[in-house]
User: What shape does this take?
Amino acid sequence: MPDTLLVSTRKGLFTYDRTGDSLALTDSAFLGDPVTIALCDPRDGTTYAGLNLGHFGCKLHRRDPGGAWREVAAPAYPEKPADAPVVRDPMRGEEVPWKVQQLWALAPDHSRPGGLWCGTIPGGLFHSSDRGETWTLNMPLWNLPERAQWGGGGYDWPGIHSVVTHPSHPERVMVAISTGGAWRSDDGGETWRVSSQGMRAEYMPPGQEYDPIVQDAHLMMACPAQPDALWVQHHNGIFRSVNGGAEWTEVTTAQPSAFGFAVAVHPANPEVAWFAPAIKDERRIPVDGRVVVSRTRDGGRTFDVLTEGLPQAHAYHLIYRHCLVVSEDAAHPQLAMGSTTGSLWTSADEGERWTRISADLPPIYALSWAKG
Amino acid sequence: MPLVRFTPSLQRHVSTPDVQVDGQTVRDALSQIFLATPTLKSYLVDEQGALRKHVTVFVDGTPVRDRTTLSDALQPDSDIDVMQALSGG
Assistant: This one.
């Protein structure tokens, strides 16, 4: 059973620890500062927190087990070469800057101890071999000619929000981009190939809907027990792959809507996944003002709409992409969900019943379970 | 020798007392300070060396014009104020 939940919010990082059957807030850090992502590395217990200071830029802090937080290097672009090609956002025509604007995804690099990947806005993937002391931009991905087709989603610039790695396949790295589809490397990031064939973008002009590079994947997750089994919550739907992203199939049965940001996949059963549906595009509120979680247990053929313990009237919580998470305890998976309105819920029975842990947190940007 | 002062809001991130440094330009002055306090650099300028969007620098009461290469000239008795712009929250 996981012991600790990291809650990244607009106004700090909050740590909840399990006491009996409930979670209690045991630590707060970076109060007042936006924390966009946090990770407790399961290999060594090191915790990382990515900050986005309003005036002073993106920062990365690290806490060793039993230690105190300490600032380490944040991913940063190299000096832009004078002859570097100008890449413009395809929708707005503005040049994509070589400047990190948000740390958006952290994942272990299982090929080496202390190895980390970090996905960022505006679309750079960074690697550290030394637990965040130094970072290097992954140039093969950044130099892809196809990057010129990546566009901004909810943010002005494209961003890598999903970095999927697995201990059994240390050389495999998958990323998903809003908007830029999904990409896969089988050589530790030396080469990349697009891996979002089958996704459909209904917002594109006729004839371009199935272009794999324009897909607005909101989040991509793999089943820990079967890493070839992937789910994507996409801007206009839910997609599933059973072959490591080679092909994707649209799931059209989700209720009450197919729009959302988050997806969580059962640690042992790739047929089971949870979603946090909402009304799409510029509205982004729960359908009918009811906060629900939708769950499939049969690979997307059918969905349950789960409501017990969740507000069912005039509730306008939005669940961001990193805010619906499940622990990797296959026997007793623990769900947690956090909202833009500062509510935090957990469920110990696969979503049947939810308990609100807090209604008073700042807007929640990301959740992460960790071993205590 | 020009005097450089820093916004108090920086202090909880990086300790930055007032300091006098030589320099013909804002870039010269800040570069010397960054050598002494490397951590400060990423708080004030981005990866390409430009002032961060929400940081501003005044020289003798006037905002610098060159935010990209920080080439605004200094006088021997200039006062340089490193400020946060009114943004964030």
Summary: The longest helix of chain A spans residues 139-142.
